[in-house]
């Protein structure tokens, strides 16, 4: 950022007391710095008690037109929601962890005020995370698109019924699958759903995509890693009662039926994450996955 930001947006589930407490701390600190604070004027925004600090409530579509930085307070789901808001704007995001794992929201609650000051002083690390684009083309010609920071998932609509589908990469046939679905994850999203499907942990700045079948019927149907520039396509095989749906970063995009084609391709957009100085991805992994606790961690 060329100059100190003058407005921050707070995003979170303010009905959660922990989130509300951290948001009130942030709002109070921003007020002392003369920074405008914005929240979305919805049910969550109405529930937010700023404790006397001046907070402007604005419509969701106005938020990113007025905010220069977004504070996502909660878990990774909150940051993914914030990422959808700023995906076309290039507004940086700072994640305050009041959730569970928090691979994306890495600032601890007790460090909120120090982290805000670091942003204002330009003393933080910028982290560009490229997005994927989900493109759904209906058999009738309708087209839908949506951006993803973590992943695009095609999965069965009803429980207990396996899907039969085919996959292509850059127009080349890959496999016929019998599974509960397919996850196509960015390097950032490799630690989300794809990880539980047996996919690898990918350093987030590698220019790759993970393609992971969900509960495949055949043990040889394993996750693969392909260049991010690839276009991954999925199409259901026509079977009686076959029905699936597509989710993008955990939010349902649309239903999928035989004859529809789902393509996941690289996007030209990216998310700018802010981290405290000295951000270390491997330290984050150790913290979240409880690595290196056998008493033999090496120090340098």
Description:
The chain starts with 6 loop residues before the first strand and ends in an 11-residue tail after the last helix. The longest helix has 16 residues, at 17-32. The strands form two sheets. Strands 1, 2, 3, 4, 5, 6, 7, 9, 10, 14 and 17 form an eleven-stranded mixed beta sheet that branches. A six-stranded antiparallel beta sheet has the order 13-12-11-8-15-16, with no helix packed on it. The chain has helices at residues 17-32, 43-47, 60-66, 76-86, 112-120, 193-196, 281-289; strands at 7-12, 36-40, 56-58, 69-74, 93-97, 124-137, 143-148, 151-156, 163-169, 172-179, 181-186, 208-214, 224-227, 232-236, 244-248, 251-256, 261-276. The protein folds into two domains: 7-122, Probable inorganic polyphosphate/atp-NAD kinase, domain 1 (Rossmann fold, 3-Layer(aba) Sandwich), CATH 3.40.50.10330; 131-268, Tumour Suppressor Smad4 (Sandwich). The protein is globular. It has 300 residues and is an alpha/beta fold. It is 20% helix and 38% strand. The mean pLDDT is 91. It contains seven helices and 17 strands.
């Amino acid at each position: 950022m060329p100059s100190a930001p003058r407005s921050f947006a707070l995003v979170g589930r303010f009905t959660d007391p922990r989130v509300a407490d951290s948001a009130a701390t942030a709002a109070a600190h921003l007020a002392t710095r003369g920074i405008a604070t914005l929240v979305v004027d919805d049910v969550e925004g109405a529930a937010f008690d700023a404790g006397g600090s001046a907070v402007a409530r604005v419509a969701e579509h106005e938020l990113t037109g007025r905010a220069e930085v977004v504070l996502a307070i909660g878990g990774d789901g909150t940051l993914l929601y914030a990422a959808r808001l700023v995906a076309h704007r290039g507004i940086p995001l700072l994640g305050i962890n009041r959730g569970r794992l928090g691979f994306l929201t890495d600032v601890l609650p007790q460090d909120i005020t120090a982290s805000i000051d670091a942003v204002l002083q330009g003393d933080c690390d910028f982290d560009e995370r490229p997005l994927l684009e989900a493109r759904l083309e209906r058999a009738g010609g309708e087209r839908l698109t949506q951006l993803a920071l973590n992943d695009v998932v095609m999965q069965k609509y009803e429980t207990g019924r396996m899907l039969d589908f085919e996959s292509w990469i850059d127009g080349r046939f890959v496999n016929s699958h019998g599974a509960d679905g397919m996850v196509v994850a960015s390097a950032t999203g490799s630690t989300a759903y794809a990880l539980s499907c047996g996919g690898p942990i990918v350093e987030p700045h590698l220019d790759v995509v993970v393609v992971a079948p969900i509960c495949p019927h055949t043990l040889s149907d394993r996750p693969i890693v392909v260049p991010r520039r690839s276009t991954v396509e999925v199409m259901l095989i026509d079977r009686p009662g076959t029905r699936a749906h597509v989710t993008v970063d955990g939010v349902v995009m649309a239903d999928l039926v035989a004859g529809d084609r789902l393509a996941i391709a690289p996007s030209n957009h990216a998310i700018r994450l802010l981290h405290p100085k000295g951000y270390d991805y491997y330290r984050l992994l150790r913290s979240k996955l409880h690595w290196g606790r056998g008493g033999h961690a090496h120090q340098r």
